[in-house]
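Reminder to self: tokens first, then the designed residues, so the page reads top to bottom the way the pipeline ran.
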């Protein structure tokens, strides 16, 4: 009931790396527990109460939406996948009523993972610059923020040597850090903050890996002022994929809800997604990976297959990558191969 309430995060100007975020793990745990409650209510035939629990899950994830911190963004993505699993549980057993579906579609339409990611990454760059400013004031602490000088972290001689580094060297490092951030990190994000061109994201991801590989060569990073880029940029490498995956899963969930609406009204699933528009869906979402409509195939026994071609950009006919435990769909954390598939049954 208090939509503008936020957690009292202390954004420390003197030490941005010392910001504490103890609430994030609590939010994820609460989302997991609330999901279990909702699934139990669905099983008991209490779909109205289950929807209220799903609404609470949305509220929990929204409580950190304005935090300009990458880890907050990633926790929100993780919590959102729990929400989508819960929605899927209701769809799997045909528990959601038409009014529930309409409400869930409205909530999903308000989710924009790519624009959320821009806020998080701009904040991350701000914290990176704050870390550099902190090092300018405390150059002897250079060995504590990365592994480039890990062998010298406990050496008093090394700390003395770091203290002699001129401010100008750090400023040059700061320039190159921001240039790399603009090119490799923010360069993959679309201006409209909605659909991401995954091909661009993959290319820039490969480029930053190549860039960081060269930086870590002996003396190359020091001479070309890329030392701090090597320390501060690598943690962002998988962020593209996580954001795009979140965007795609939300799109798949919206279509799955529309398919259920069609089934409730027509007593069967449509032959194609075009039949959903405009009554059940404003338009068929475009796959971020090849700019074509999401794939769909009507199955038997009330089943269907719905998928995106995934991070590899190749249509595998709706076959997801399966991990060592035989898990696919939402359960598989390796999303680099295979299609990204809306789970067909509880066997997945």
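Designed residues (348 positions):
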């Amino acid at each position: 009931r208090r939509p503008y309430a936020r957690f009292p995060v202390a954004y420390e100007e003197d030490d941005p790396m010392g910001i504490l975020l103890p609430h994030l793990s609590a939010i994820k745990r609460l989302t997991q527990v609330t999901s279990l409650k909702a699934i139990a209510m669905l099983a008991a035939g209490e779909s109205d109460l289950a929807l209220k629990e799903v609404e609470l899950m949305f509220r929990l994830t929204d409580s950190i939406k304005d935090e300009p911190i990458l880890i907050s963004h990633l926790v929100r993505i993780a919590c959102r996948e729990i929400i989508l699993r819960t929605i899927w549980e209701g769809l799997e057993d045909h528990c959601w009523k038409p009014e529930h579906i309409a409400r869930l579609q409205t909530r999903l339409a308000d989710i924009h993972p790519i624009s959320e990611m821009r806020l998080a990454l701009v904040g991350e760059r701000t914290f990176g610059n704050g870390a550099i400013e902190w090092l300018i004031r405390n150059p002897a602490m250079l060995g504590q923020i990365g592994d480039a000088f890990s062998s010298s972290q406990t050496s008093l001689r090394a700390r003395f040597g770091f203290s002699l580094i001129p401010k100008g060297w750090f400023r040059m490092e700061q320039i190159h850090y921001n240039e790399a951030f603009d090119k490799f990190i923010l360069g993959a994000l679309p201006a409209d903050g909605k659909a991401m061109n995954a091909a661009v994201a993959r290319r820039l991801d490969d480029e930053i890996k190549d860039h960081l590989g060269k930086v870590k060569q002996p003396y190359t990073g020091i001479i070309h002022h890329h030392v701090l880029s090597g320390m501060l940029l690598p943690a962002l490498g998988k962020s593209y994929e996580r954001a795009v995956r979140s965007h795609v899963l939300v799109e798949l969930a919206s279509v799955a809800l529309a398919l259920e609406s069609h089934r409730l009204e027509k007593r069967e699933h449509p032959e194609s997604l075009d039949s959903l528009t405009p009554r059940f869906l404003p338009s068929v979402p475009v796959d971020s990976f090849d700019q074509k409509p999401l794939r769909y195939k009507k199955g038997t026994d009330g089943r269907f297959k719905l998928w995106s071609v995934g991070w590899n950009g190749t249509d595998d006919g709706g076959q997801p990558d399966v991990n060592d435990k035989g898990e696919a769909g939402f359960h598989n954390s390796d999303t680099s191969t295979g299609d990204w598939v809306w789970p067909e049954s509880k066997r997945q």
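The two ends are 37 Å apart (CA to CA).
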